[in-house]
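pasting for the record
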Amino acid sequence: MFVPHDQAVGVVLMQDQGNGLQPTAYLRKKLHRAELNYLIHDKEALAIVIAFKAWRCYLKRRRTTVYTDHCSLKYLKKQPNLSRRQVRWIDFLETHFHYDIVYKPGHKNKADTLSRPAHRHLLQWDSDIAYRKGSTNIWVPNYPPLCQLLLEEYQDVLYAGHFGSNKTLTGIARHYYWSHLAEDVQKFVTSYDTCQRMTSSKQKKAGLLQPLPVPEQSWQVVSLDFITGLPPTTSGRDAILVVIDKFSKMGHFIPTHTTARTEETAQLFVRYIISQYGIPTTLISD
């Protein structure tokens, strides 16, 4: 499907695989200064040539139907008086491709939207990039997947810091512009799981850590922890159960397994600690 505009052409490549025509690729190209002066008939023909050149690997040796909203283009090959430019275009198309041209009104043509940027009066062009007039903000087409990608990319970079909607909007608005930008940012931040987890809590901060009371005697209060990820020994042990007496700071380092269950750890504690020092009143562990 092909649609030219005053400054650009829009093309949609579609294929029927049994479920009707489905989009395969999109193409939008800004016209050069000389091409801007073409008559509408030539702009329509140019759109076809641009598309066939871009997608030659897909269209060569295949029967292709060209849908256009310019009715007279159906008679391009039968036109009695052709310009040199039109002769070159037809020669290129006839030499390499098999195609039929079918008229389709603009309101039924999906490519129509590609050639008609929203709020065109607010845009200025530079090197095939559209900017919002009076600023350096790049204009983004109203295409949800593209807007979503920009939002995700901005939030995932290190300097973004997973801010809330206001700071995210301010950051993106420095570089990009599209319709409903503020609304899209608000919805994205609300639904984005990473933002939900990284956004700072608005609740009252927790109090300072309080020191544990000093025990009155040895092996009354004992702390437990594990050292894991060690190279396995000949017996297969790859972790250490660390037991520290909080009063004397004496420690026991007991070989064990990373996969040791609660029952196995309890048996080690009974064998190496309780059997020597008795049952402690308090156990501390994370």
